[in-house]
Amino acid sequence: MFTSCSRARPAIGAGLAASLPAMETYVVRVWVPDRPGALGQVASRIGSVGGDVIGIDILERGAGRAIDELVVTLPSSELLPLLTDEIAQVDDAAVEEIRRISGEPPDPGTAPLETVLRLVESSGSHWGDDVCRELRTLFGADWVCLLAPDSASTMGHAGADTPSPAWMQAFVEGSRHLPSDEQTNAAAPDLAWADVGSTGLVLVLGRSGSPLRSRERRQLTLLARIAGSIQHS
């Protein structure tokens, strides 16, 4: 009798697993009022449509609002319009962007460190392209270019439909005179740049669809400095 029961249990478990809907994973970028309990209200609304918040990343805070990226699992993409409507029911909350991701969601705490590790391990004639490729992946950018000091060429690139080197140089020089904090506020929301240490190179990045936020711009500045240090080492 004991043997018979032990054989039956896996079949029951398999049947329950087969009946569960496959969950889809999304990154939901939301504007949330910067007040106690507001994020909890948003999470509650997500739960009301069968969603589950499995990750939170704060991108920007200021002027009484926060911009957060929530990693959310949902039973079906058909629930996305309802999810957006539910979040909007929270006073002063709104959805900026939703994008689906496949595989394991990136960990915002370790992803930049993994990028740094791969930059350290990169070397040789493809260093510039490696840097651009890694940063394009990290920031979800459309393109990344490593601009040469003479501004007439690039030392590396990743992605397609990149602007001309002369245009990128003009963009950089047009905002270089601003203090660093004002560069973030005054910059085009889909463009960012950073000096690569003391190499004379400049990284320029473009991303459509979701604006580049202040924390992402700070990360780009630090990663560019690290890349420059690695190149000189």
Notable traits:
8 helices, four-stranded antiparallel beta sheet, 26% strand, 233 residues, alpha+beta, elongated, single chain, disordered N terminus
Q: Can you characterise this structure?
A:
This protein has helices spanning 2-19, 38-48, 80-88, 111-121, 127-139, 165-176, 180-186, 214-232, and strands at 24-33, 52-62, 65-74, 94-101, 143-147, 154-159, 191-195, 202-206. It is elongated. Helix 4 packs antiparallel against helix 5 (127-139) and helix 5 runs antiparallel to helix 8. The strands form two sheets. The chain has a four-stranded antiparallel sheet. A four-stranded antiparallel sheet has the order 6-5-8-7, with helices on both faces. It contains eight helices and eight strands; from the N terminus they run αβαββαβααββααββα. It has 233 residues and is of the alpha+beta class.
What's the layout of helices and strands?
Layout: H1 2-19, E1 24-33, H2 38-48, E2 52-62, E3 65-74, H3 80-88, E4 94-101, H4 111-121, H5 127-139, E5 143-147, E6 154-159, H6 165-176, H7 180-186, E7 191-195, E8 202-206, H8 214-232
Helix pairs in contact: 4-5, 4-8, 5-8
Uncertain regions spanning at least 5 consecutive residues? 1-20
Please give the radius of gyration in angstroms: 22 Å
Global structural class: alpha+beta
Helix content: 40-55%
What shape does the CA trace take? Answer: elongated
**Largest β-sheet summary:** 4 strands, antiparallel
**How big a fraction of the residues is strand?**
25-35%
Task: Please give the alpha-carbon distance between the first and last residues.
Answer: 70 Å
Helix count, per DSSP? Answer: 8
What is the averaged pLDDT score?
Answer: 83
Q: What topology, given as strand order, has the largest sheet? A: 2-3-1-4
Count of individual beta strands = 8
The string of secondary-structure elements, in order, is HEHEEHEHHEEHHEEH
